[in-house]
Amino acid sequence: MNGWLSVRRNCGRIAGLAAWVAVLALAPGTNGQEASAVLPYLDSAIENGSPLWWDVVDRRTVLVHLLYDHERGAPNRAAGHVHFVFHAPSGSTWTIVLTNLHNVWNGRPGSVGRDIKVLSWSPDGRFWTPAFTTTTDTNDVRLEITMPGDTIHIARIEPYRLSDLDRLLESLRGCAGVEFEVIGRTVEGRPLEMIRIGPPEAQHHFVVRARAHPWESGGNWVVEGLVRRLVFGSAEDRRLLRRACVHVLPMANKDGVARGRTRFNVAGWDLNRRWDAPADPALAPENDALERWLRRQIAAGRRPILAVDLHNDGGGRLHVSHPEGAPESYFRRMELLEDLLRRHTWFDEGSTGSSFRNPGTLGEGWLLRFGVPAVILELNTNRAGRLDRPPTGQDWQEFGAALADVFEAYARLHEAPAEPVTR
Ligand SMILES: [Zn+2]
């Protein structure tokens, strides 16, 4: 274990901090202004900044305490979103240590510290570079930095903010074959835009949802790549639209993204749980709106042939749940989807096994309640599959663009009469 971390586990940390502050205050020729110029500052009052507080532990170490968000009516809690601006003199070297990563997931305590092998940094909040971390034996995460200027932006993965979504939506305005529908509003009243690309009377329909969990910005980059290809690409790039229409809910948990939260909506609802029953319209209006939209689609004869819910974690994989009553054709289609992902994108992580279940996810709920083949696709934050390096937003956009090929091949195979996808 690192020496100073051993210290921080007992009262010696506080004594050490007090001693260092005293040194700053008493140093010959050091006044308050000079001392404050040495002390770093963390600014999380930025768009999508993560809730946190911090300690300056010594002259080169800052301990960042991430704050949990909590699920209503469950023991679950989550911290793991990271996004702030670090201020310190140019050229100075620091160790940033993230703590409070002891989450509770599906009722089980566990740390996400081991999952965070990579963070991203940027000099300006726009151009991001992944950087490897180390994890302590107490599951804190350490990042070593040398300041490239007086500020550096640090994030779990390349951020995608509400303003990024607004920019995307604005770029689509007036484009042929694209429509937005505000299908509802979040708990805090933000509009939930469903983007429709392609003709509503198309033979096949695909649904993509991103950002049910606000820290997981990778899904938004994937959506951006998919949407941009289908709207701005060549006729060949857009060939999927000859046989299919694609519906995208790009940011399901807008309130959580705005507030820099990790997992739940602001009423404490996990938007990727409790899909086994209709959502509470007051506590989960985001899911209620999506379910109502899906019911309208099905009533209009537009039952999706595939729904993909985009997430991030530290391992990747297609999460195929195996609930009782799932038709065998569903699993064959998920094998097909995995094969197409491997063929057309850099995906190489594979699927969860035949005993895997994650009740209440969109994947299970849409399959069992609506007969829609639906699945959770976890995008690996640490390694971009066959690219074999930490993924950037650009990598994920390219992955999203390639999803158009995956969907096109999937639609073609769906047309094979011997294999109905839905029940
Ligand atoms: Zn997730």
Give a structural overview.
The structure is a single chain. The chain has 423 residues and is of the alpha+beta class. It has two domains: 3-155, Immunoglobulin-like (Sandwich), CATH 2.60.40.3120; 162-414, Aminopeptidase. The protein contains ten helices and 21 strands. A seven-stranded mixed beta sheet has the order 15-16-18-17-19-21-20, sandwiched between helices. The chain has a five-stranded antiparallel beta sheet with strand order 1-6-14-10-11, with no helix packed on it. A hairpin with a 5-residue loop joins strand 15 (178-185) and strand 16 (191-197). The termini are far apart. The structure holds zinc ion. Residues 213, 216, 272, 311 line the site of zinc ion.
List strands and helices in order, with pairings:
Elements: H1 3-8, H2 12-26, H3 32-38, E1 41-43, E2 52-58, E3 61-66, E4 69-70, E5 77-78, E6 83-87, E7 93-99, E8 102-105, E9 108-111, E10 118-122, E11 129-132, E12 134-135, E13 141-146, E14 151-155, H4 162-172, E15 178-185, E16 191-197, E17 204-210, H5 218-232, E18 244-249, H6 254-258, H7 285-299, E19 306-313, E20 318-319, H8 328-344, H9 362-370, E21 374-380, H10 393-414
Parallel strand pairs: 3-7, 17-18, 17-19, 19-21
Antiparallel strand pairs: 1-6, 2-3, 4-5, 6-14, 7-13, 8-9, 10-11, 10-14, 12-13, 15-16, 16-18, 20-21
